[in-house]
C-alpha cells in the first residue's frame, strides 16, 4: 500500500514538473519570437525578460520536482533566486544605455521620464564627473566618436 | 504503468526541441541585431535558454551531475553581460 502511494506520489510530482517545464519552454519560445520581431531595444528587452525570469523559474521548479534530492533542489533554488536578483540589474544597465544611445524608438514611447535629463550631463554611477574643466584625455572612447 | 513516464519523457524531449528552435531564433537576432545592445540582450536570452536546456536535460535523464554546471553558468552569464554592458558604454552604439 505504501509502495503504491509512493509510486503515485512520484508520478504526480513528475507530471506536475513536466507541466511546469512545458509552460516555461512555451514562454521561452514566445519570447524568442518577440525578440526577433519587436522594433527596438526596449521592447526587445520586454520580450527578453520572460525566459530570463519567469521561464527559467518555471523550468527550475520543474527540474526540482523531477530530481527530488535535497542538494539538487537547493542548487536549483539558488539558480532561480540568483537569476531573479541579477536580471533586473542587467536590464537596468541596458535600458539606461539604450536611452543614451539610439536604441529607443522615441515615436513609440508614450511617456519618456528621462527626456528632460540630458544624457550627457547624467553620468552613470561609475562615470567620472563630466566637469567643466576640460580633461579630454579622461574620457577616451566616447567623446572621440561623438565628435 | 509504463504509459505515463514514457509520455512525460516524450514531452520533455519535445520541449528540448522547442528550446533549440527558440535558441535558433535568438541566434538570428544575435547575428542581425543593429546595435550592440540588441546583441547583448540576445546573448542574455541565449544564456537563459541554455540554462533551461540543461535543467530539462537533467530532468529527462534524472542525472543530477549537470546541476552545479547550471549554477556556475548563471553566475558567469551575469558577470559577462554586465561587463559587456560596461564596454558598450556611450557613443559606441554599433
TrEMBL record, chain A:
Comp. bias regions, Acidic residues: 119-130
Residue stretches spanning the membrane: 15-36, 73-95
Chain positions covered by the region annotation Disordered: 114-147
Keywords: Membrane, Transmembrane, Transmembrane helix
Organism (species): Actinomycetospora aeridis
Presence of the UniProt keyword Membrane in the record: yes
Highest taxon above the source species: Bacteria
Protein name: Monovalent cation/H(+) antiporter subunit G
Family: Belongs to the CPA3 antiporters (TC 2.A.63) subunit G family.
Gene name of this polypeptide: mnhG
Keyword Ligase in record: no
UniProtKB/TrEMBL annotation, chain B:
InterPro entries the UniProt entry points to: MrpF/PhaF-like
Annotated Pfam families: MrpF_PhaF
Domain of life: Bacteria
Keyword annotations of the record: Cell membrane, Membrane, Transmembrane, Transmembrane helix, Transport
Segments traversing the membrane: 6-28, 40-60, 66-88
Main subcellular location: membrane
Membrane-related topology note: Multi-pass membrane protein
Compartment annotation: Cell membrane
Family from the record: Belongs to the CPA3 antiporters (TC 2.A.63) subunit F family.
Descriptive protein name: Monovalent cation/H+ antiporter complex subunit F
Amino acid at each position: 500500500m505504501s509502495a503504491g502511494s509512493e509510486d503515485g506520489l512520484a508520478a504526480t510530482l513528475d507530471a506536475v514538473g513536466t507541466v511546469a517545464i512545458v509552460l516555461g519552454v512555451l514562454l521561452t519560445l514566445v519570447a524568442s519570437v518577440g525578440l526577433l520581431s519587436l522594433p527596438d531595444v526596449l521592447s526587445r528587452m520586454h520580450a527578453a525578460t520572460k525566459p530570463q525570469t519567469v521561464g527559467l523559474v518555471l523550468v527550475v521548479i520543474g527540474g526540482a520536482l523531477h530530481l527530488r534530492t535535497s542538494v539538487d533542489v537547493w542548487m536549483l533554488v539558488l539558480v532561480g533566486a540568483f537569476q531573479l536578483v541579477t536580471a533586473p540589474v542587467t536590464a537596468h544597465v541596458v535600458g539606461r544605455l539604450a536611452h543614451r544611445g539610439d536604441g529607443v524608438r522615441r515615436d513609440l514611447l508614450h511617456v519618456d521620464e528621462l527626456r528632460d535629463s540630458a544624457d550627457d550631463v547624467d553620468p552613470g554611477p561609475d562615470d567620472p564627473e563630466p566637469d567643466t574643466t576640460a580633461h579630454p584625455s579622461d574620457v577616451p572612447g566616447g567623446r572621440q566618436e561623438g565628435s | 504503468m509504463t504509459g505515463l513516464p514514457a509520455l512525460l519523457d516524450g514531452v520533455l524531449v519535445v520541449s528540448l526541441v522547442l528550446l533549440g528552435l527558440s535558441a535558433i531564433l535568438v541566434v538570428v537576432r544575435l547575428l542581425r541585431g543593429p546595435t550592440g545592445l540588441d546583441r547583448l540582450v540576445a546573448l542574455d536570452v541565449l544564456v537563459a535558454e541554455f540554462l533551461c536546456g540543461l535543467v530539462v536535460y537533467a530532468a529527462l535523464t534524472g542525472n543530477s551531475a549537470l546541476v552545479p554546471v547550471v549554477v556556475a553558468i548563471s553566475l558567469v552569464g551575469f558577470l559577462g553581460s554586465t561587463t559587456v554592458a560596461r564596454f558598450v558604454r556611450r557613443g559606441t552604439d554599433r
